[in-house]
Amino acid sequence: MTKKEVQISTLDLQDSASLMPAIKDIMMENSSHNHEAFDYKFWNWKYRTLPEQRSHVSVGKDENNNILSYYHSVCFLGKYNGQKVPYASIQDVAVSNQLRGQGFFAKISAFANKHIDDEQIKISYIFPNHRSIHTYLKYDKYTFVNDLKAYILPLNISQLIRSKVKLGGIENIFGKLFDWFCNALSIFSFLPRKYKIERQESITENILDVFEKYSHSFEYGLIKNKTYLDWRFIQKPYQKNHIFTISDDKGNTKAVAILKEDEIKGIPCLLLMDFAYTLDGGDAFFLKLLSSLRNNHQKYFGGRIGLIFTSLNAQIENKFFKIGFLRMPQKINPRPLNLLIRCNVDDSELYKKEKWNVTLCDWDVF
């Protein structure tokens, strides 16, 4: 392949007209998960309506001014040593096939990282795929922190079986047996008996209070205030979210779950995008909430959803088996998530996985 002369520069965010066709073309080249939904409205939400109003786009252009590579970084508020500090989140990075094998990924990454350093941003994080992880580790001084485990909670086992094989109705028997098993788990798992589940249409003060309390379990992670949660889950285009809360018998909100409708391998599913619970027994209420959504999926979702999928870094995952969650082997995980961080501070604590609050919410593809 002939080596192309490509210049790297910073793109003015007002100049999206030249960027959007390039993003679509390169996404299609790379079979991106969300290329069909990526348009100006989505890009504008993602990079020009940010809570902190800070984003940076590096591009590589050939001699004809065609964009053949792009590298987006955005800034969110996060926690560090009890202080609010800017985090850089690396998103939407791609190189055209015309530049493959020329070391261009490393070049544009170095250019973007210099901008992040010049902005005095201490912490950057990313979830690279298997094709690019080695570049970030080898050239960009990122460090591996954790591979997020993936879990599924079947809601409609009959539907899941029918989507793969026809059994002439036997799948309904399997479905009823699994339902019985999950119901038995919830009964004998000592979960709360008195509770109230409510669907929410907005981010309420009670939800914010639960997220704030839950954040005390971790040293690092995004600050999920109203501005951020509204932007992420209320204002995002082309996304159908479900927000549920569960309260105790005194009316105190104990846990929150935010789920997004999607599909995995053709199966309609819910992604558990984010969650929080209070630290005074709220974890049991959170499990009860998920268990109740499973047991009453016909009521809440009309029976059209096959499963709940999530990937996370949290202690609660050790209790998922109590309500029927199954660990998904990484070999069949449609998109394994590896948390990598890059720091401009000498602090070994940052590399301890148990100190990070990470959910699907952090991954920009969803």
Explain what you see.
This protein has 366 residues and is an alpha+beta fold. Helices cover 29% and strands 29% of the residues. The protein has helices spanning 16-29, 40-48, 104-118, 133-138, 157-162, 170-188, 205-214, 226-234, 282-295, 297-301; strands at residues 7-10, 55-61, 67-80, 83-95, 123-126, 143-154, 196-200, 221-222, 241-247, 253-264, 267-277, 307-312, 326-328, 337-343. Strands 1, 2, 3, 4, 5, 6, 7, 8, 9, 10, 11, 12, 13 and 14 form a 14-stranded mixed sheet that branches.
Number of strands: 14
The gyration radius over C-alpha positions equals: 22 Å
Structural class: alpha+beta
- How would you state the average pLDDT, rounded? 86
Which stretches are low in confidence, meaning pLDDT under 50 for 5 or more residues running? 165-171
Oligomer: single chain
Q: Count of DSSP helices?
A: 10
Biggest beta sheet summary: 14 strands, mixed
| Distance between the ends | 34 Å
The fraction of residues in strands falls at 25-35%
Label the overall shape. globular
Order of helices and strands: EHHEEEHEHEHHEHEHEEEHHEEE
Helicity range = 25-40%
Q: Quick recap of the structure?
A:
The protein is 29% helix and 29% strand.
List keywords for this structure.
single chain, 366 residues, alpha+beta, 14-stranded mixed β-sheet, 10 helices, globular
Write the layout of secondary structure elements.
Blueprint (H helix, E strand, L loop, with lengths): L6 E4 L5 H14 L10 H9 L6 E7 L5 E14 L2 E13 L8 H15 L4 E4 L6 H6 L4 E12 L2 H6 L7 H19 L7 E5 L4 H10 L6 E2 L3 H9 L6 E7 L5 E12 L2 E11 L4 H14 L1 H5 L5 E6 L13 E3 L8 E7 L23
Parallel strand pairs: 4-5, 11-12
Antiparallel strand pairs: 1-2, 2-3, 3-4, 3-8, 5-14, 6-12, 6-13, 6-14, 7-9, 9-10, 10-11
